Amino acid sequence: MKTLVKTFAAAALISVSTFAMAADKSASKTEKAIVNLSTADFALDHYVAVTTEGESAGVEQLFATDFNQKIQASNAQNHSRSEVVKALKKQKGEKLNCVVSTDILEESADYMVAKVTLIFEDFTKTDLVTLVREGKDWKVSTSINSYK
Question: In Å, what is the CA distance from 47 to each residue of 29, 41, 57?
Answer without folding.
Answer: 20, 10, 11
